[in-house]
């Protein structure tokens, strides 16, 4: 397929979580003239942060029939489950027939879908971290890896996903205290939380609920408080089969306040038709990219400032099994949701952490003692570059820059990274949540899978055109998955 003297394009994907693996899967099936490598330190491609979960209490948060690697076949995971019926645990199936498997199982599905392409050699997995990047002549880059090896890339795709959570500044005074668990994915630290410990969870969304289910599973009996600015917690799923025909794209919405008005009307209309707000929110999610594009920068900023929490708790829903645990503990009074601001933190005695906070709308501070403080305030999207040496190196080379909204990296409409001066860096593409500032809603599996397909199509055009540009006269081959 290659033109004479035109070596195959070297495509390197940095990060082999769901997005990097979905992109590699798309590319491997296209049989393109390229050498495809994914650099990912984890043992299996496709697991990333979300699906490396080992806790059996941690489940996918949308039903299995809506999670798929393949945007052309939305039931691919459900079909894989049907072929592997023994893989499901006894509690995965809910009363209405929806299936919410353990997150690790989705990771296994991903690894199995990638395996044939690894075996055939269409795709190479290098188990390492990219620790530095330099220019390698005019058109390529040289990647330095944590195992001291090096890789050349003509085209680099950044799929490094979720940055590590950042410690809220107020907690710096207890940063080294043994009672602070700064990363909720630190299963070993969570396993050591004593059964009677008084626990404060900072945050009230899905990761907070995951921590609650972990504690519950390991027999925790002490009080748990979740503190967040609004005190709102993630909602559960609605009845099955609801669809809204609300339209948020036409006519386009130009401001956050207009969006809020139209959403309120749509919820009333949907409720009048016997549907819950879930249908309206699902419709919003579907039209998310169009809404985001129409809003413009000012509208997007306002939306993030005023509506983000509301969106997050309605859009990212609890699996029913998790919701049941949360509801039960909340009803018993052992789990409380608090709205307020953290003011100060101090380690007052060995293992005891004193937290000062002010309830939302209140004027006086409260002081409470806890044995463990667990931070679930989410990935520090606005600090993604500083937290990752690969991204830091690319920023120093003038190839990438943070998104002005603090949501990952600045990119063009075609996922090309933009420099701080707004110049496209044609050899660097961005896939998945790091491109969220431009695309809008880009976190869940369906959105990341569709984004990976877009990036794959762009790479395919590039791979097919590169040799033709070097040797004009050659016919352009067709692109289609095998
Ligand atoms: C806890 C959790 C649960 C979720 N549950 C669901 C769900 O049930 N349903 C749903 O639809 N969505 C869910 N999501 C959202 C969605 O699945 C994720 O947003 C998606 O998996 C993003 O994948 P990613 O590959 O872009 O990022 P990540 O999963 O963050 O993967 C990025 C990968 O990049 C690697 N990496 C980073 N830096 C480097 C480097 N320098 N060199 C090499 N490799 C590097 C990391 O090792 C990591 O594996 C969940 C998200 C989280 C965090």
Write up this protein.
With 482 residues, the chain is of the alpha/beta class. Helix content is 34%, strand content 18%. β5 and β6 form a beta hairpin. Bound molecules: flavin-adenine dinucleotide. Flavin-adenine dinucleotide binds next to α1 and α12.
- Helix and strand element order: EHEHHEEEEEEHEHEHHHHEEEEHEEHH
The CATH superfamily of the largest domain turns out to be: FAD/NAD(P)-binding domain
State the end-to-end CA separation: 15 Å
Number of helices, counting only DSSP H or I runs of 4 residues or more:
12
Instruction: List cofactors, ions and other ligands.
Output: flavin-adenine dinucleotide
Q: What's the number of extended β-strand segments? A: 16
- The geometry reads as globular
Compute the number of structural domains. 3
How much of the sequence is in beta strands? 15-25%
Unreliable stretches covering 5 or more consecutive residues: none
Radius of gyration: 23 Å
Percentage of residues assigned to helices = 25-40%
Strand order of the largest sheet: 8-14-9-10-11-12-13
Q: Report the structural category.
A: alpha/beta
What's the CATH C level of the largest domain? Alpha Beta
Under the CATH scheme, which architecture of the largest domain would be assigned? 3-Layer(bba) Sandwich
Average pLDDT, all residues:
92
**CATH topology of the largest domain, anyone?**
FAD/NAD(P)-binding domain
The largest pleated sheet is described as: 7 strands, mixed
């Amino acid at each position: 397929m290659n033109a004479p003297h035109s070596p195959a394009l070297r495509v390197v994907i940095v990060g082999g979580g769901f997005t990097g693996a979905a992109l590699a899967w798309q590319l491997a099936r296209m049989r393109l003239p390229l050498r495809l490598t994914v650099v990912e330190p984890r043992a299996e491609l496709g697991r990333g942060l979300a699906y490396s979960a080992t806790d059996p209490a941690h489940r996918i948060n949308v039903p299995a029939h809506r999670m798929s690697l393949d945007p052309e076949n939305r039931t691919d995971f459900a079909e894989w489950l049907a072929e592997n019926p023994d893989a499901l645990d006894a509690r995965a199936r809910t009363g209405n027939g929806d299936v919410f498997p353990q997150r690790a199982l989705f990771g296994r599905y991903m690894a199995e879908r990638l395996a044939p392409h690894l075996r055939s050699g269409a795709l190479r997995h290098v188990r390492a971290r990219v620790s530095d990047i330099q220019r390698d002549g005019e058109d390529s880059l040289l990647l330095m890896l944590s195992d001291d090896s090096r890789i050349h890339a003509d085209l680099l795709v950044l799929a490094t996903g979720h940055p590590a959570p950042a410690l809220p500044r107020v907690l710096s005074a207890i940063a080294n205290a043994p009672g602070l668990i700064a990363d909720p994915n630190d299963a070993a630290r969570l396993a050591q939380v004593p059964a009677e410990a008084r626990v404060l969870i900072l945050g009230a969304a899905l990761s907070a609920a995951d921590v609650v289910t972990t504690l519950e599973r390991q027999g925790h009996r002490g009080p748990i408080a979740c503190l967040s600015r609004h005190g709102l917690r993630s909602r559960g799923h609605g009845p099955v089969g609801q669809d809204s025909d609300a339209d948020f794209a036409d006519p386009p919405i130009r401001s956050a306040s207009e969006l809020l008005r139209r959403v309120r009307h749509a919820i009333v209309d949907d409720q009048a038709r016997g549907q819950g707000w879930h249908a309206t929110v699902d419709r919003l999610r579907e039209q998310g990219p169009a809404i985001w594009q129409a809003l413009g920068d000012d509208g997007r900023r306002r939306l993030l400032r005023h509506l983000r929490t509301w969106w997050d708790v309605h859009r990212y829903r609890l699996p029913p099994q998790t919701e049941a645990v949360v509801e039960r503990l909340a009803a018993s009074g052992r789990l409380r949701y608090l709205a307020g601001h953290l003011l100060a933190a101090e380690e007052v005695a060995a293992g005891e952490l004193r937290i000062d906070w002010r309830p939302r709308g209140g004027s006086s501070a409260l002081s409470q003692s806890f044995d463990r403080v667990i931070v679930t305030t989410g990935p520090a999207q606005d600090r993604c570059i500083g937290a990752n040496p690969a991204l830091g190196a690319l920023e120093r080379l003038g190839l990438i820059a943070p998104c002005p909204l603090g949501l990952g990296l600045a990119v063009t409409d075609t996922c090309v990274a933009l420099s701080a001066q707004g110049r496209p860096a044609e050899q660097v593409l961005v896939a998945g949540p790091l491109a969220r500032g431009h695309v809008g809603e880009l976190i869940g599996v369906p959105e990341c899978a569709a984004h990976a397909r877009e990036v794959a199509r762009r790479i395919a055009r590039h791979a097919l055109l590169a040799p033709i540009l070097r040797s004009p006269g050659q016919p352009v081959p067709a692109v289609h998955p095998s």
